[in-house]
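To close the section, here is one more complete example, presented without commentary so you can practise reading it yourself. The ligand is P-hydroxybenzoic acid.
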Amino acid sequence: MTPRSTTVAVVGAGPAGLVLAHVLRRAGVAVTVHERLSRPALENAARAGVLEHRVVEYLRTLGLADRLTAEGERHGRCEIACLGEKVLVDYGALSGGIRHWVYPQQLLVRDLIAAYERDGGAIAFESPVEAVTLDDANRPVLHTAGGELRAEYAVGCDGAHSVVAAAFADRADGPTRRYPYDWLTVLARISRPVDKIRYAVHADGFAGMMPRTADVGRFYLEVPAGEELAAWDERRIRAELAHRLELEGSDPALGGLLETGMLRMRGRVAHRMREGRLLLAGDAAHTVTPSGAKGLNSAVADAADLAGGLIAELLGGGSARLDGYQQRRLDAAWQTQEFSDRLLDLLHLPAGLPAEQREFALRLRLQRIHRIARPGPEATEFARAYAGAGELAAAPVWPSAQAAAVASAATAR
Ligand code: PHB
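Output:
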């Protein structure tokens, strides 16, 4: 049964919503989690899979990374192919030991759901929030099929079409960029694991090969913006991947294609992530292209920061931390956009470049690729930003938060 009121209503049970709900609940804050999808749909949606160092360290401190670190793989090298050269970027070494973890997002989501439920939390699956309005005291009211729910705070962790963002006066509008190309996405069985991310900067368009699990890989092909998936039959996809990635006998061979899609490439950052008691985290506030694998990571980083702010606000630690949330996370969102955009610029030739000018553009790119592969300031900066050096904001432990946590654990027993 849906309670009629709560302290924090979290809309969306993706990684950001689940991490936020988890940290709040552990501190003793009353939380509800509302998810549009069914549990199987959520737990099986193949999405990202490359986790930053700092995100995994944060999850580890919460005890949420056991399976991830047991079954995931550490990756500290990628390869960028251009003009017949395969340049190895040892970003793990260049960053002084900061590496990624590869672990599919849907497995992380399953782990987070399991941990939340183990702690006594409940997630309302297949419970879309239809709208969020404000009452006379500017407190959020969530409208669901099951009735109205009043909350002290509503947090939109519900993606690019967020219902919480829709309740902002400006609908959480902000600057956007539509890139002049899209990425055709493929999830495929593979004959052996992808041992490192491979980017192919190619006269016929970018292609990428990314790790997921031992027998599944994620592939990308640059296509013209607005291209229909129907224009690409399986034979054409396979031929183009093999051609641009220059797949050889020692590379993973593609087995069955499990999923194909068309990713409309755009970047977007809202002007605001907070309006009074409405807050946004992750894709609800900003969308980044997959380039650089930052979307999932920045969503969890938003959730970590927001959890700290809400706990301080609600449990006697003051308002300063929550008041700083928007500025800190908008700054971080722009850093993320700049990184992703810079990598996209390296990986794609300018739109409409005549064939006879492509080699020149590729040679310029090869210079940049060498600069991020060769030890030096540019390589260090790239490596640290790529792998996610640094730390996420840890949740504060205020005396009253501890007391509340103890009290709620006692009630649960
Ligand atoms: C991915 O894992 O899908 C991925 C990783 C790195 C990128 C882009 C995509 O730069």
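Once you have examined the tokens, check your reading against these statements. The first strand starts at residue 5 and ends at 11. Residues 55 and 258 are 28 Å apart (CA to CA).
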